[in-house]
Specification:
With about 110 residues, this protein is α+β, with helices and mostly antiparallel strands. The protein has helices spanning about 5-10, 55-75, and strands at about 15-20, 25-30, 35-40, 80-85, 100-105. The structure holds guanosine-5'-monophosphate (5GP) and zinc ion.
Length: about 110
């Protein structure tokens, strides 16, 4: 399957992984929108948040737990950070392999554009 995030997870596309385990991998975004901008993705190919099912609930919890861990590692846990999923093109999704953005290191405005 032609999916860049599957390729990153399977190490077919050289990308420095900042975290990996049996369920997820994390790496720096190619075009960072904040001083800290990481992507956390499941190893399993799921196109969008619309496609998760009951069996994925532990995986989604694990992704958020990973975000918490990375935020602590990057020293942004106390100042604050944002975890974002863009679901489908209307929300700005461009890569159709589920991913969560971890953004921090600057003030975040609200609401997002
Ligand atoms: P989306 O717009 O789908 O929510 O987020 C996709 C993100 O993936 C974008 O922020 C984009 O910069 C990032 N991205 C796209 N291709 C690559 C890549 O090959 N490597 C990395 N590290 N990030 C990528
Ligand atoms: Zn994929």
């Amino acid at each position: 399957m032609e999916c860049i995030f599957c390729k990153i997870a399977q190490k077919e596309l050289p990308t420095k992984l900042i975290y990996e385990d049996n369920l997820v991998v994390a790496f720096d975004d190619l075009h960072p929108r904040a001083p800290i901008h990481k992507l956390i993705i499941p190893r399993k190919h799921i196109a969008t948040l619309n496609d998760i099912t009951d069996i994925d609930m532990p995986l989604i919890g694990h992704i958020l737990h990973t975000a918490q861990k990375l935020a602590k590692d990057c020293d942004i846990a106390e100042q604050g950070y944002r975890v974002v999923n863009n679901c489908n093109a209307g929300a700005g999704q461009t890569v159709f392999h589920l991913h969560f953005h971890l953004l921090g290191g600057r003030e975040m405005s609200w609401p997002p554009g």
